[in-house]
């Protein structure tokens, strides 16, 4: 079914879990990198690290990077960069011709990345997937705005860059609380990726990111 979002001019993309699926192995590696970053600062044993992490994750903040920052008493952007130093996601990624074709279909839109990671690593992931960094006006992370989603700083930064009404932006992500709810609150349109069940939060729900073009074009 086509969704009436003809006025959308800008698509804002999450990365992990959106442009590619998060396998169990990659998810484990992501969590391991977060624990290692914490242990680097605290010297804790693993049991203590897990205990303190789980006390805060999804209770204090839905952003794991924010949890690392809070535990280590460091800025969020530093936590993002340090966590990524322990993570090699490229071993899980390869050129995705279907994703390349999707961005070719969507070339009439402006594109931004808004992700909770480090800019360099996100750029490396895009290259591995076959998507030129030049596809995007900008890769926006905590290195740019100081905080992670679901805080709205990154969304507001993009609105300032485009000088367009919020309703002309579509946020595409795989997490309702982190990616979509803050965008919706600001008046952006939203798309949930990775679900066959319609979302109560999103304007559009698609099983895979590849299904987006046939709905919005």
Beta percentage is 5-15%
Number of domains: 2
What is the top-level CATH class of the largest domain? Alpha Beta
State the low-pLDDT regions, or none.
none
> What is the tally of beta strands?
6
First and last CA, distance: 11 Å
Question: What is the annotated CATH architecture of the largest domain?
Answer: 3-Layer(aba) Sandwich
Query: Total helix count?
Result: 10
Mean pLDDT: 95
Overall spatial form = globular
Question: Regarding quaternary structure, how should these chains be classified?
Answer: single chain
| Element pattern in H and E | EHHHHHEHEHHEHEEH
Largest beta sheet: what is the strand line-up? Answer: 3-2-1-4-5-6
How is the CATH topology of the largest domain named?
Rossmann fold
Name of the CATH superfamily of the largest domain: HAD superfamily/HAD-like
Main sheet properties:
6 strands, parallel
């Amino acid at each position: 079914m086509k969704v009436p979002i003809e006025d959308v001019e800008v698509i804002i993309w999450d990365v992990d879990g959106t442009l590619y699926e998060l396998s169990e192995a990659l998810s484990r590696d992501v969590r391991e990198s977060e624990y290692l970053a914490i242990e680097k600062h605290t010297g804790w044993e693993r049991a203590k690290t897990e205990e303190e992490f789980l006390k805060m994750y999804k209770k204090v903040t839905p952003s794991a990077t924010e949890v690392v920052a809070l535990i280590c008493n460091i800025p969020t952007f530093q936590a993002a960069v340090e966590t990524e130093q322990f993570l090699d996601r490229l071993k899980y990624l390869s050129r995705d011709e279907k994703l390349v074709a999707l961005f070719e279909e969507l070339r009439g839109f402006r594109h931004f990345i808004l992700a909770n990671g480090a800019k360099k690593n996100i750029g490396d992931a895009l290259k591995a997937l076959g998507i030129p960094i030049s596809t995007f006006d900008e890769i926006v992370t905590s290195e740019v705005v100081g905080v992670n989603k679901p805080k709205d700083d990154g969304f507001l930064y993009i609105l300032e860059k485009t000088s367009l009404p919020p309703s002309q932006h579509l946020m595409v992500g795989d997490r309702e609380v982190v990616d979509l709810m803050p965008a919706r609150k600001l008046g952006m349109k939203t798309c949930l990726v990775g679900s066959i069940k319609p979302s109560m939060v999103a304007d559009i729900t698609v099983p895979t990111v590849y299904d987006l073009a046939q709905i919005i074009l």
